């Protein structure tokens, strides 16, 4: 498989945010979410199932996502997760919070250079 | 918020969730394996890689559970499981605690059920707080709760405005004919009776005016009990006829099961309020009323008292000195039972406290022994709050276990109590364990659980938690704070036990005093029987002939020493009471005439009862209707009416059968206690049976051996003379004497039981504390021994500690006892509440028991080998 760039560690809250984003287009099952995150991050984030499913459960407990059994691409049974209205609101809020966070950290880091 | 609801939903569907998760992970694994194959790995390596990535499935499941489980619940279930494990590890302790709690909580719940039904719950009639009972009250003699005269009732009925309805009722009896002749007691009731109580029949109808019309058959309403017992609950009974000895009656209905206004009535019949009643002066009936809306019992009382004052003027010879009391019915029914029930409630409360103190002691001992374990938990990060919570849960688990069993025991006990039909508890049939009582029990359980779960642990301060890890628990004494607290608990128990023991002792001695009271007759070897010679078949001459025949036949039986007849047996029958006028004395002012009991007895009565003849003569066969009218009086009569001068030859006038009849006193007999063993005899006048042949008789037969053995023979003899004659109450005189003390006997038994329980629990508690103390101090004892202390010193060490606790307890208990035994009130007889002998006996008894409790730990202490204990520490 892919090469040496060590996968970064994802903080718990950040993983929740990424999962919300992953589900923001269409419902997906757990494996698809992990694959999507891995691909979109260029292999930077290899989400272990030991982290993914607890994240999905946390979000479901908070009412941000809902789950339902359905049929996958190759007609196999799979549990699909879907963003709720509350989840969308949460995604917007968390994303904006993340932007501000990243912006602030970035400003400090660039300031040190100058 | 909704997150909580989702958690709850998870909790409820947990199994399905876990199954789903397992499947989901499997699918994930498959997809990952496929992906790996797709990317070129060989199948096994792909599978292996996938599985490695999926990781430990159990760990995942646990992580998921951690996300979903409500936080507190997780800890709580863990605490409960931990507590249960702890109990299993020490089954002895657990058993002791649970049994203690079962007894305490069970007894409390049962008693509360009784208290609730008897004292707290309203009577089973609509609007029961509007119901009152009306008594007559003789002011000069301060005789309250006197039965009522129909004449006065009719006047109240006419004049009073405070009542919506007023009713009068009296006791009556009928004899059922047939193969099983039976005598029944019932009530004759005025037409307003059922209106006052707002009662409806369960079957049939109430009385109507047609029932009392001339020529109509006697109408009867049956009680539920009679209907079930004698008529098998036959629902077709309404309208059917009933054969009585003298006539035929018609059953018009059956009353509901909980309708029992007086308590022992089997039937009701109408009592028409004819004008003739206005001439009948005797007092013998009960009156109940329903207050008009807006009128209070006090207002009705004032109104009737005013009317009574008027009656004193209108009928001075009959009503002088008489007034009226209006009493709420609820109070009437419960007043007599209330003090005893409250006393028992207090006693049971004490036992419950002692039980809880025992369990607290047990737990405290465990806490101190588990210091090490607690220290480890604290070191691992448990906060004091967490540890306290865990202990509270332990206490709660014990309380729930003991409480559940206790409630079960209470339900069974209450059912047994109701079935016993104990006379002394009014409204017994209404007692039952219901939701409210279960709620009360839960409250008690919860409080007990938290209290003795937490109490021991509260002493632990934050710093102390980690201490013992430093040394090997090697303090030389065990925490003195813990021992002091436990000792205080034991002293508390001892104090309460002394109170209960002294109380029980007082009631036992009172009963003993009462039973040794001379009743004025010899109750041993006396068989008694009631007969009712009613109806036309037993006209006056027939009664005389029959009774003489009966007496002579019974006297002829082998094993019979004496036979006699009386119309009202002491401690059983109710004699008539009326005014007596001594002719040689000036007439007392109206309202102050002396009264006495009037009875009828035959020639053999006093001999059979072994009541001494003090002066003059008894009755003889020549005292018959044609001869001069004579009477015999008792010595109370001589003392109170004649100031002790000889009554022989005096002539008196008695207003009972023939108002102006004058009789001469020919003899004086000893006093016989008639109402109860503790009530002194009233002046009594006895008429000879041949001159006043009463219809209702009690036969007394003095037997040479056990009276019960003669019963079947006597019964057969009476049936032989008249098969239709019902034989009532074939009992020994001893059973009536015993029954008359029932009021004292059952509280005495209960108090003694509770006191015994309390002492046992306290002794167990003391033993526990001392045993633990010796165990903790084994190193100290070894040290002392090594330094040369004798066995005596060691023994003094242990017993000194034990008796210090007991001594404090006795001192406190003594003070409490002196303050509280006055609440025994009526139960005391012949003793003061602070009787020194009883107190000394109780304290001595406790000391002896305490001695036993200290015996074993002392022996253990003496056997401590310094070589062993001093080495242990290394």
Tell me the fraction of residues in β-strands of chain B, as a range.
15-25%
How many runs of DSSP E, i.e. beta strands of chain B? Answer: 22
Beta-strand residue percentage of chain A: 5-15%
Helix content class of chain A: 55-70%
Mean pLDDT, all residues of chain B: 83
What's the total helix number of chain B?
28
**Structural domains of chain A: how many:** 1
Look at the helices and sheets of chain B and give the structural class.
alpha+beta
**In terms of structural class, how would the helical and strand content of chain A be classed?**
alpha+beta
Poorly predicted runs of chain B are 469-478
Tell me the name of the CATH homologous superfamily of chain A. Answer: Winged helix-like DNA-binding domain superfamily/Winged helix DNA-binding domain
Greatest interface by residues involved = A-B, 21 and 28 residues
Largest sheet of chain B: 11 strands, mixed
Integer count of domains of chain B? 5
- CATH-assigned fold name of chain A: Arc Repressor Mutant, subunit A
Using only CA atoms, what is the Rg of chain B? 38 Å
Biggest sheet features of chain A:
3 strands, antiparallel
SSE order of chain A, one letter for each helix or strand: HEHHEEH
Multimer state = heterodimer
Summarize the structure.
Chain A contains four helices and three strands. Chain A has 114 residues and is α+β, with helices and mostly antiparallel strands.
Describe the structure.
The complex is a heterodimer of chains A (114) and B (874). Chain A is an alpha+beta fold and 114 residues long. Chain A has a single domain, classed as Arc Repressor Mutant, subunit A (Orthogonal Bundle). Chain A has helices at 12-22, 30-40, 49-61, 85-113; strands spanning 28-29, 65-71, 77-83. In chain A, strand 2 and strand 3 (77-83) form a beta hairpin. The longest helix of chain A is centred in the C-terminal third of the chain and has 29 residues, at 85-113. Residues 1-5 of chain A have low confidence and may be disordered. Chain B starts with a helix and ends with a helix. The interface between A and B is medium-sized, with 21 and 28 residues.
């Amino acid at each position: 498989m892919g090469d040496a760039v060590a996968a970064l560690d994802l903080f718990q809250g950040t993983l929740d945010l990424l999962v919300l984003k992953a589900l923001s287009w269409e419902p997906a099952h757990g494996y698809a979410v992990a694959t999507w995150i891995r691909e979109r991050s260029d292999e930077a984030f290899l989400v272990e199932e030991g982290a993914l499913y607890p994240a999905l459960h946390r979000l479901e407990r908070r009412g941000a996502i809902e789950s339902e059994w359905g049929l996958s691409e190759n007609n196999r049974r799979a549990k699909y997760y879907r963003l709720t209205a509350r989840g969308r609101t949460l995604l917007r809020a968390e994303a904006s919070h993340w932007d501000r966070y990243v912006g602030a950290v970035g400003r400090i880091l660039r300031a040190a250079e100058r | 918020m909704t997150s909580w609801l989702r958690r709850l939903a998870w909790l409820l569907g947990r199994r399905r969730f876990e199954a789903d998760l397992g499947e989901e992970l499997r699918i994930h694994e498959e997809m990952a394996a496929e992906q790996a194959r797709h990317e070129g790995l060989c199948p096994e390596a792909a599978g292996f890689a996938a599985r490695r990535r999926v990781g430990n499935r159990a760990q995942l499941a646990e992580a998921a559970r951690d996300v979903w489980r409500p936080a507190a619940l997780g800890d709580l279930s863990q605490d409960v499981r931990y507590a249960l494990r702890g109990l299993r590890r020490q089954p002895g302790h657990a058993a002791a605690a649970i049994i203690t709690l079962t007894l305490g909580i069970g007894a409390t719940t049962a008693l509360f059920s009784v208290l609730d039904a008897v004292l707290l719950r309203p009577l089973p009639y609509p609007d029961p707080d509007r119901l009152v009972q009306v008594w007559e009250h003789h002011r000069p003699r301060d005789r309250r709760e006197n039965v009522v005269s129909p004449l006065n009732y009719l006047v109240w009925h006419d004049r009073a405005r405070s009542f919506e309805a007023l009713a009068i009722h009296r006791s009556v009896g009928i004899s059922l004919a047939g193969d099983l002749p039976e005598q029944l007691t019932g009530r004759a009731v005025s037409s307003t009776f059922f209106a006052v109580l707002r009662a409806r029949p369960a079957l049939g109808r109430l009385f109507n005016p047609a029932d009392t019309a001339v020529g109509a058959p006697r109408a009867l309403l049956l009680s539920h009990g009679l209907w079930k017992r004698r008529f098998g609950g036959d629902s077709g009974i309404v309208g059917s006829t009933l054969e009585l000895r003298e006539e035929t009656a018609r059953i018009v209905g059956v009353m509901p099961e909980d309708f029992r206004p007086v308590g022992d009535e089997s039937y009701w019949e109408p009592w028409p309020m004819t004008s003739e009643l206005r001439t009948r002066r005797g007092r013998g009936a009960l009156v109940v009323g329903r207050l008009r809306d807006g009128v209070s019992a006090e207002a009705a009382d004032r109104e009737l008292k005013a009317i009574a004052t008027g009656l004193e003027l209108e009928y001075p010879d009959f009503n002088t000195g008489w007034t009226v009391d209006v009493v709420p019915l609820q109070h009437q029914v419960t007043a007599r039972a209330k003090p005893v029930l409250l006393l028992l409630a207090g006693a049971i409360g004490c036992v419950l406290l002692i039980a809880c103190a025992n369990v607290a002691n047990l737990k405290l001992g465990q806490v101190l022994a588990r210091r090490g374990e607690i220290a480890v938990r604290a070191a691992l990060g448990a906060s004091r709050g967490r540890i306290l919570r865990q202990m509270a849960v332990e206490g709660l688990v014990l309380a729930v276990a003991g409480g559940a069993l206790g409630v079960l025991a209470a339900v069974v006990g209450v059912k047994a109590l109701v079935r016993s039909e104990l006379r002394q508890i009014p409204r017994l049939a209404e007692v039952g364990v219901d939701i409210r009582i279960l709620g009360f029990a839960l409250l008690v359980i919860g409080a007990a659980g938290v209290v003795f779960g937490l109490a021991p642990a509260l002493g632990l301060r934050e710093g102390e938690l980690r201490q013992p890890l430093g040394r090997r628990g090697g303090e030389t004494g065990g925490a003195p704070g813990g021992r002091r607290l436990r000792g205080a608990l034991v002293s508390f128990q001892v104090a309460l036990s002394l109170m209960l023991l002294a109380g029980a002792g007082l009631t036992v001695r009172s009963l003993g005093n009462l039973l040794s009271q001379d009743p004025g007759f010899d109750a041993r070897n006396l068989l008694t029987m009631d007969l009712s010679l009613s109806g036309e078949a037993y006209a006056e001459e027939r009664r005389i002939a029959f009774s003489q025949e009966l007496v002579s036949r019974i006297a002829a039986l082998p094993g019979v020493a004496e036979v006699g007849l009386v119309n009202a047996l002491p401690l059983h029958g109710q004699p008539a009471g009326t005014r007596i006028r001594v002719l040689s004395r000036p007439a007392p002012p109206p309202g102050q005439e002396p009264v006495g009991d009037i009875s009828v007895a035959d020639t053999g009565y006093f001999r059979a009862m072994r009541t001494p003849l003090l002066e003059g003569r008894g009755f003889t066969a020549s005292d018959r209707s044609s001869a001069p009218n004579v009477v015999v009086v008792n010595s109370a009569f001589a003392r109170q009416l004649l100031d002790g001068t000889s009554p022989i030859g005096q002539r008196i006038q008695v207003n009972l059968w023939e108002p102006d009849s004058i009789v001469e006193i020919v003899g004086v007999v000893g006093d016989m206690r008639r109402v109860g063993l503790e009530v002194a005899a009233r002046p009594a006048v006895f008429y000879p049976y041949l001159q006043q042949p009463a219809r209702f008789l009690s036969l007394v037969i003095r037997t040479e051996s056990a009276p019960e053995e003669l019963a079947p023979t006597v019964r057969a003899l009476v049936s032989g003379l008249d098969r239709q004659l019902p034989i009532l109450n074939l009992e020994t005189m001893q059973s009536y004497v015993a029954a008359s003390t029932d009021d004292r006997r059952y509280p005495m038994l209960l108090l003694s039981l509770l006191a015994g329980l309390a002492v046992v629990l306290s002794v167990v508690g003391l033993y526990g504390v001392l045993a633990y103390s010796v165990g903790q101090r084994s190193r100290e004892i070894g040290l002392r021994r090594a330094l040369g202390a004798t066995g005596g010193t060691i023994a003094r060490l242990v017993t000194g500690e034990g008796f210090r606790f007991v001594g404090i307890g006795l001192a406190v208990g003594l003070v409490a006892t002196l303050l509280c035994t006055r609440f025994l009130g009526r139960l005391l007889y012949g003793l003061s509440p602070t009787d020194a002998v009883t107190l000394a006996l109780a304290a001595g008894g406790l000391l002896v028991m305490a001695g036993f409790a200290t015996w074993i730990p002392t022996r253990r202490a003496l056997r401590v080998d310094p070589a062993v204990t001093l080495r242990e520490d290394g």
